[in-house]
Amino acid sequence: MNTTGAAFGTRLLGLTRRVRPAAAVAAAPTPDVACASVTGVPARAPGLAGVPHFAALGGGRVVTTPRDAEVERSDTRVCYVYGVVPASTRLPQGLLGTGGGRVRLVRYGDLAGVISEIPPAGALGTREDLLAHENVVASLATRTTMLPLRFSAVVTTASGVVEEMLKPYYDWFTGVLADLEGRAEFTVSATYVQDTVLREVLAEEPEVMRLRESLRGLPETAAYYDRVRLGELIIQALDAKREVDTEELMQTLSPHAVAATPRPPVDEDTAADAAFLVSEDDQTSFRKAVDELGYRWAGRIRLRVLGPLAPYDFVPSPPGGPVG
Hints:
By secondary structure, the chain is α+β, with helices and mostly antiparallel strands. 35% of the residues lie in helices and 20% in strands. The chain has 2 domains: 3-38 and 185-314, no CATH class; 63-180, no CATH class. Strands 2, 3, 4, 5, 6 and 7 form a 6-stranded antiparallel sheet that branches. A 5-stranded mixed sheet has the order 1-11-8-10-9. Belongs to the gas vesicle GvpF/GvpL family.
């Protein structure tokens, strides 16, 4: 049963749902772009079950603590690890992490692990935990090069951060930090204006128009399979449009970035979603290119830009793959 397809069919029949209050595009349109300089906000708002696009770094016996997982010993505290930064990094005063613990650095050579202490027993995975993690990462990403670890990475002791992470991966960490110095991630999310894009589908797909007309005026409980078929055809048409629009986004913005990677769509209204690694010298031209694309897409696609962020999408896995 394709309930998504049925929902699309029902939505298309009326073409009345508004994503935002109707606003006619002026003769000289303004770009449909929302820009944000983000601190403490995920690159993509994740669900509590996990965090997409977090760099999955690990070393030694680093473990990811799932919901309801417990550490056997209850008489000590363990180290929650947020990421790795240069040892010269200075922390913001009073920075607190997951569970309200004070954030500090564990240094080894030119590297430092960013940690705070948490109780060894109990669950990690609440929205508050996630936001605390993101706040620490974002706070440091504004002042230094930050290699973020995945949400809920825990090591038993501070010395374990050195022995199990910083020492064995020292050359790799220093190399990645050097490669990312002076660069930050920007994410660009493009969302269809539903009424506009569905009208495009009607105009371009005769079978969609035919089914739509045959279902007009019928109760929603009637012709169920025709509605499902209508939804499937719309999904196929949107997939084709999404491929074209993603390519345009990448071609337009990639010349202003060191690296770029597309990301999976969040939902059926996603026109394109991508992350870009941008150097400090190119951030102005990158933002200008986003504005120009927003003008070009005004009334059809809305753009949302987040950044500068920690380079979630551009940290490779350690040699041998992530451990933990």
